[in-house]
Structures are given as structure tokens and as C-alpha cells.
TrEMBL record:
Cofactor binding note of this UniProt entry: Binds 1 [4Fe-4S] cluster.
Binding-site residues, [4Fe-4S] cluster: C273, C276, C308, E315
Matching SUPFAM superfamilies: Inosine monophosphate dehydrogenase (IMPDH), Nitrite and sulphite reductase 4Fe-4S domain-like
Cofactor: [4Fe-4S] cluster
Pathway(s) the chain acts in: Isoprenoid biosynthesis; isopentenyl diphosphate biosynthesis via DXP pathway; isopentenyl diphosphate from 1-deoxy-D-xylulose 5-phosphate: step 5/6
Its job: Converts 2C-methyl-D-erythritol 2,4-cyclodiphosphate (ME-2,4cPP) into 1-hydroxy-2-methyl-2-(E)-butenyl 4-diphosphate.
Residues in IspG TIM-barrel domain copies: 15-254
Name of the protein in its database record: 4-hydroxy-3-methylbut-2-en-1-yl diphosphate synthase (flavodoxin)
A Pfam entry, by short name: GcpE_C
UniProt key word S-adenosyl-L-methionine: no
Keyword 4Fe-4S attached: yes
GO BP annotations listed: isopentenyl diphosphate biosynthetic process, methylerythritol 4-phosphate pathway; terpenoid biosynthetic process
Swiss-Prot/TrEMBL catalytic activity: (2E)-4-hydroxy-3-methylbut-2-enyl diphosphate + oxidized [flavodoxin] + H2O + 2 H(+) = 2-C-methyl-D-erythritol 2,4-cyclic diphosphate + reduced [flavodoxin]
């Protein structure tokens, strides 16, 4: 069978590339996954602890809100401790943007039209240029300008796109081009239509998101539909899954969306059945336990966990490691798609974890020998 599968090809929209700290966004760079802290930024210790958890989950970029001078005062310590670039989230108060840029922000999240006069926009642009900051324009259906609401009568794709273009012009008028743009809405149809319209109008990187998506389950479904549709159409250079959940969960969901479309390959990709009366072991609890115990694996590995032999062998042929339920408490283990040995139920979890860890170490060593420092990045 040919390895070329045109029905699985996503042709990404051509965008120009900007840098957020040392992380490229746009162009041919991998689509980055972002999240946002929810601790009081003025509490540097708590914020750094949360950033560390997000980094361990794989966050490429992390946003930190800076609503007051106490937050920007703590931002310098936070930025020094962070291992990934930080975006300072600024609303209305242009001086917070100036302070955050000086304190080490790699990017400023602002809407230029909401921070006051043209002179204030010019000051922010000067601070961004002086400190090597990018800017993320964040248009939101819930906070559209009054004149656009009056013009269109309600939030609509055309209104979001016009707002984005107005903000872009303010930056371009000051010869600033290191920006990316989001046009978010909590309504999936509205957000997708707005992003599609904006993608045709500009060449800058686009930051994807369905805002106020909801809790872990509902928000994951909603975000997957919206963000997934856009990514499938080739639109999007960076994303945040907005959940009423811990920020590291946003990161994990973001990567799962990208992995499902073959756009990122970080960590273990689990193929598992929903289980039925034929299962030779408790598939649901086994998968839950494996997902928790394998979160530390960054290397791209595929693992199939199937409760019986109906689909088990077929799925195992397509994965690095496979487990298929058998009778009498003995289950078949597959390595690189080939039947290899049996494992008993009592030892099954520890055994599969050890196999995945060993496979990850093997891949990491091979990548290291080939001169790649990060096997997850090398695979992309």
C-alpha cells in the first residue's frame, strides 16, 4: 500500500512568521499550544508553580494577566522563572503594557483601539519594539466596539473581521508588523466564519480559540468542533482551548486536537475501544490509569488498548505497542505491530508502562544520535 494518503493531507494557509520570544509562530512552524494562568499574578510563587505544571504538560506559550501595577511588578520574577515565552494580557491600561514589556513579556495581548489615544498606541509600539515583543490582537464577540454593534446590529463574522482590521491598521500605521490576531466567540458558527473571513483578508498568523467554551467535557467538545474545523481547513498557527478547568488541561486537550489531525505528535497517542461484554480486562479503568501514568512521556508513541480480539490485532498492527484482551487473565502484547508475548492481568499495567518508557528511551537515543535535542520536535 502506498504511504501517500491524500485524504489525510491538510494544506496549511500560508502566513508570515513572527517570533514570540524564541518560539516561531506562523509560516511552516508547528502549530503552538497556549494556555493562561488563573492565579493572582501578584502572587509570583503561585503563578510560577502553575506555569511549571503547564510547561510539563507541553505548553509552548503561556499568557499571564496583568490587570494592575502589582501584577506587572511581579511579572519580572515570573518571566525570569518561566521556561517558555510569556504573553502579558492587557486590557485598557496602556501603562501596564509598557511595564510588562520592560519586565520581560515576549508578547503583549492588547486591542490597540481600546488603550486610548494614538499617542498611547505609539508608546506601546515603541515599548514592544524596544523589548522585542510581539503583539496579539484579541477581538472577542463579547466586547465588540459600540460603533460596530450599531452598524451590524449584533456580533457577526463581518463585525469581528472589521474590528480586527481596524486594530491591525493602528499597528501598521506605526510600522509594527510583529502581530498575530484572534477573532474569538463562544458561538462555534460565529467564530469559525469570522476566522475564515479573516484568513482571506490578512497574511499574519492567526491565534485560534472558541472563547468561554465551558467545562472540561463540554468545552473540549465545543473547542474540538470549532478549532478542528479551522485546522482541517488549514487555518491556524497557534491555539488556546478555553476551559473552565485547570490550565494544564487546556494544554492536554490542545495537543489531543492537533494529534488527531496529525499536526503535532507529542506524547502517547492512545487507541482504545469503548469496551463491551467481550472485554478480557477492564478497558476503561486501564486506559484511565495508563493516561495518568504516561503523562510524562513527551516522545511520540502510539499505544493500542483493545479489550478483545475482534479489532485488537488490526489496531495493534498500526501502533508501536499494543495490548489485546484474552481469556484466563492472559493478554497478548504486540510490539511494532507483531505479536510478541503474553502478560497476566496483575502485571499488565506496570508492564505496559515499562514498555512505553523503554520505547521512548529508545527513540530519544536514536534522535539524540541523529542530532535532535527534542524527539517530539524532530518528529514534527
Amino acid at each position: 500500500m502506498s504511504s501517500i494518503r491524500p485524504w489525510r493531507t491538510i494544506e496549511r494557509r500560508k502566513s508570515r512568521q513572527i517570533m514570540v520570544g524564541k518560539v516561531p509562530v506562523g509560516g511552516d512552524a508547528p502549530i503552538t499550544v497556549q494556555t493562561m494562568t488563573n492565579t493572582p499574578t501578584s502572587d509570583a510563587g503561585a503563578t510560577i508553580d502553575q506555569i511549571r505544571r503547564c510547561e510539563e504538560a507541553g505548553a509552548d506559550i503561556i499568557r499571564v494577566s496583568c490587570p494592575d501595577v502589582e501584577s506587572t511588578a511581579a511579572f519580572r520574577e515570573i518571566a525570569r522563572a518561566a521556561r517558555v515565552p510569556l504573553v502579558a494580557d492587557i486590557h485598557f491600561h496602556y501603562k501596564r503594557a509598557l511595564e510588562a514589556a520592560d519586565a520581560g513579556a515576549a508578547c503583549l495581548r492588547i486591542n490597540p483601539g481600546n488603550i486610548g489615544s494614538n499617542d498611547r498606541v505609539a508608546e506601546v509600539v515603541r515599548a514592544a519594539k524596544a523589548n522585542g515583543c510581539a503583539i496579539r490582537i484579541g477581538v472577542n464577540a463579547g466586547s465588540l466596539e459600540k460603533d460596530l454593534l450599531e452598524k451590524y446590529g449584533e456580533p457577526c463574522p463581518e463585525a469581528l473581521v472589521e474590528s480586527a482590521l481596524d486594530h491591525i491598521k493602528l499597528l501598521q500605521d506605526h510600522d509594527f508588523h510583529e502581530y498575530k490576531v484572534a477573532v474569538k466567540a463562544s458561538d462555534v458558527f460565529l467564530a469559525v466564519a469570522a476566522y475564515m473571513g479573516l484568513a482571506e483578508a490578512v497574511d499574519c498568523p492567526l491565534h485560534l480559540g472558541i472563547t468561554e467554551a465551558g467545562g472540561l467535557i463540554g468545552g473540549t467538545v465545543k473547542s474540538s468542533i470549532g478549532i478542528g474545523n479551522l485546522l482541517w481547513a488549514g487555518i491556524g498557527d497557534t491555539l488556546r482551548v478555553s476551559l473552565s478547568a485547570e490550565p494544564e488541561e487546556e494544554v492536554r486537550v490542545g495537543f489531543e486536537i492537533l494529534k488527531s489531525l496529525g499536526l503535532r505528535t507529542r506524547g502517547v497517542r492512545v487507541v482504545s475501544c469503548p469496551s463491551c461484554a467481550r472485554q478480557g480486562f477492564d478497558v476503561i479503568r486501564t486506559v484511565e490509569a495508563l493516561e495518568k501514568r504516561l503523562t510524562h512521556i513527551k516522545t511520540p508513541i502510539s499505544l493500542s488498548v483493545l479489550g478483545c480480539v475482534v479489532n485488537g490485532p488490526g489496531e495493534a498492527r498500526e501502533t508501536d505497542i499494543g495490548l489485546t484482551g484474552g481469556g484466563n487473565g492472559k493478554h497478548m502484547v504486540y510490539l511494532s505491530g507483531v505479536t510478541d508475548h503474553h502478560v497476566e492481568s496483575a502485571a499488565m499495567l506496570d508492564h505496559i508502562v515499562s514498555l512505553v518508557e523503554a520505547k521512548a528511551a529508545e527513540i530519544e537515543e536514536a534522535m539524540s544520535d541523529a542530532g535532535h535535542a527534542d524527539p517530539a520536535v524532530a518528529a514534527e
